[in-house]
Amino acid sequence: MEVNIIDKALKALRIYPLCDHCLGRIFARLGYGMENDERGRSIKNVLLLYLHGRAKQENTLPDIEKLAESGHEPSIRYLEEIHGTKVDVKRCYICGGDLFNKVDVIVKMILDKIREEDVEFRTYHVGTTIPRDILMRELEVVTNVGSEWAESIKREINRVIGKKLRVYLRDKVFERFSPDVEIVVDIVNNDVRIDIKPLYVYTRYRKILRGVSQVQLRLNVITSLQKVINDNICSRLRAREAIVHASGREDTDVRMLGRGRPLVIAFIEPRRRPEESSLREIIDLQDEPFELSSDVKIVNRRVIERLKSEASRHVKIYRALVLLAREISDEEARSLEEYFRNRQVIQYTPRRIRRKPPKKRRVRMVYEMRVIKIHDRLLELIIKCQGGLYVKELITGDEGRTTPSVSDTLGQDAVPLLLDVLDVLDSY
What we know:
This protein is of the alpha+beta class. The protein has 15 helices and 15 strands. Strands 5, 6, 7, 8, 9, 10, 11, 12, 13, 14 and 15 form an 11-stranded mixed beta sheet that branches. It has a 4-stranded mixed beta sheet with strand order 2-1-3-4.
């Protein structure tokens, strides 16, 4: 052991009575394969050897008494048996001396709480709430000693509890960053709570009826995807609620067909956490205006951010039934197709949208437009475009807020009667 470690340990014990855990934690990054109580006990043993060896050159009894006051049994016996001195053990300055003695009781409380909550999980993490005065005293000691190897008491107590839990939760996995449940321990009040993390399920949805929406934003909406999932699926997972996060959205009067729109469903506080293979059957919807794909994946929260950020980069295919003011020729139809091949479109917030800032500019691409004449003034348009394009306004022009538009290009009014999303070209 280097002399500066002995000097720092002596400096600490001369000022503060420290238990084995709290002394060892000052030097937590030194050594290997030891817990801090073992490290602290080893340091105290070496200090007693060091002080005993220097007893002939200098008076080391005051330092040995400080060792004894910290609860070091060999130092206590040495003073009693060799010098006839009895020393009273002092409470640890940082933790009070009984914090780590509670670990077995806390572990039992955690196991009881898990049984009480009746929650399924594969991964878990342990967190503790440590009183601020303990944290401040620890900071004071580390600062005064000048240790560069210290570990926080919060990290140690979490690790010690987690290590003991592993003995009982053999089929579970300790996970630091994205656990199924977070076990939170209130050290002072001897209280335990289980925070059940959301279950994030990636899939796609199809909307096969008009007049329904992703979420219930308006009173005139028949129902919503979020409501249907809450009514039909949450009880199967024993979840409190479900929140839908989709890659964009279609208007209430627009169907979402084809393979469906990419979607992440966040099931809040699910007490069942089945495997992906079982989820395929659980999220099946029967006799509803929505369908969920059987291709499901369990993902993490970061996928929601990615889904939303990439929505405008997806390629979408629409089908629009359009009524014209007058009939167009086959040549005009072909000209319309040619004009909107890889055409950049500038749009400002449509008049019909109130939730977004007015006059917000966006630029989107129309990659391809196929024009099918159904009747004299009735067209079917198949539009392949960049995500985020206002397709209705691409047709009408929205009084100049969208340029170019089908109306302007044909030189007459064009009205979208029906609109469907045929596909969202995306792969997770």
